[in-house]
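Hi again,

Forgot to attach this to my earlier email, sorry! This is the prediction with fe (ii) ion bound. I've pasted everything inline since the attachment limit keeps bouncing my files.
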Amino acid sequence: MNFIYPRSPEIIFGRGSIRNLPDKVKALGIDQVFVVSDKGIRKAGITDKLIALLQEANIKVNLFEEIEKEPTAMNIEEAKKELKASGAKMVIGLGGGSALDVSKAVALLATNEGDILSYVGVEKFKKEGLPLIAIPTTAGTGSEVTRFIVFIGPEVKTKLVIVSQLAIPKCAILDPELTITLPPKVTAATGMDALTHAIESYVNVSSNYLSESLSMKAIQLIAKSLRKAVARGSNIEAREEMLAASLLAGLAFNSTRLGIVHAMSQPAGGHFDIPHGISNAILLPYVMEYNLIGNIERYIDIAVAFGEKIDGLSPMEAAMRSVKAVRDLMRDIGITEKLGDFGVREEDLEMLASEAMESGNILVNPRFPSKEDIIEIYKKAL
Ligand SMILES: [Fe+2]
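Structure tokens for the complex follow:
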């Protein structure tokens, strides 16, 4: 087996770990930071807490809070302008995947010429960005450790992806206490994003010695704790395990990439404004059914991780139990939507499938799909 593992940030994990932030900034000799966040984070009281921590340590803060639900190229360019005008020499990303992805983009655009669109693709950035500390407030994207930046393009409403080792933050601070105010619906959706990362990474053709242990542990933690985190947001143990799961899944797919759930979910989410975790969740069981024959053993492992009884079953029956486990989880945490609920119609599927086939995630999926296969899976999820 051959594999390459991208670099990893320094990872600071645990309850109250946000208090390490000022020391991490000061250790770099920096006294002014540019914080990329959104207004929801402020409402949850997290932004003020972070600013107070920094100001107590005499660190000046410039705040950019205009993050859109799904960041656009324009949104990134606005943030870049403000960062440059501020003169700050360090970026802090605070929030869910959108805020973290914008923070990764602007840290790089501060030192690399040109606009964000010129860097779409693989490893196009040439210079290290400004130092970046990523602080997730959801347990889902794993963006705090990954080399991916996802945003919506200026003309067509399609999602664009930047893959760059230089986008990986210098440091990630993961404090589960920051996630306790997330409402149940967001907890459910972001948790399903983390589960999709873990499953797609675990079964895909790039899965390796290092990634498989990370992704399996993530699946086990999600099977144990996602229901609890949705049921009672203040359950700090469940929040901690979900944040760990999101981190482990992020570290796993940073090496392996994902699969056709993400290939299909990105165009669907971009064109029809579906929250990323929800579009993944809708597609995940159908894609698992389609993929099963590509990696039966791994799907059996997933069934077992969810506590499914497989004694006496044939390998395919046992593998099918992984799909049942995911459907049961979705039912319990209240994800009942279909793509049609967001306005996707049968006549859109040809266009969505064409875009999905362009994704790099197609290449690593355990079963190589035709465009017709992709359309069929979309149809089931309508
Ligand atoms: Fe995702």
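The chain has two domains: 10-179, 184-380. The longest strand covers residues 32-36.

That should be everything now.

G.
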